[in-house]
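Example pasted here:
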Amino acid sequence: MNLFESFRDGLSVVPLAGRLARLGDSPTPEALVGIAMSYKVIRPLQVRTEMLELARIVADARPRALLEIGTFRGGTLFVWSRLAAPDAVIISLDLPVSLRGKLVRVAQGPLFRQFTYGHQSMHLLREDSHNPASVAHVGTIRGDRPLDFLFIDGDHAYEGVKADFELHSPAVRPGGIVAFHDIAMKPPCGVPQLWTEIKSRYRHTEIVHETGPKSMGVGVLWV
């Protein structure tokens, strides 16, 4: 996809808006994951069945405050937003590193704001998740609401994903959910190493439906 196509697709809110209008305020995880996977401009880099299993967990939690670290095209943010409570505070924390990435993120803004319903608020922070100032910014936005759901899918280096967990998980309420993407990905991805180190400290589940070179996997902690 070239830069022109990214801008064009990022501003194409009408087709998605039409599909959302037909969903109502209580769509199923199956319907939402189906839209995310079929709508090219927001399609996430996820194994469909793994994402669906996580979506069912999120639907049961009905979060009122959620943070996603690493948003990319927005497909996962879309699903979490529609499964969250109608008054949820939704925060995307993402840092594009190239000029093209920064421009695409600007173009995505109108599309991402179509994800919300009811009285939800959407906050798109284009900041370094490892910076204490970003942690403070997230805190200011959520106010007195602890996070119910934290989805970590940003920096996949060991030190990076470890920093995201250590900096942002303290804001998750007791019994809340922290989910990591790519716990089964092969090196040099560092997520599996961190997952192995921390999972035994918490009630957890592993969602891994594919093995081999293309394996991804999702790890879920109840903290």
Remarks:
- The chain has one domain: 3-222.
- The first helix runs from residue 3 to 10.
- The radius of gyration is 16 Å.
- Confidence is low (pLDDT under 50) at residues 1-11.
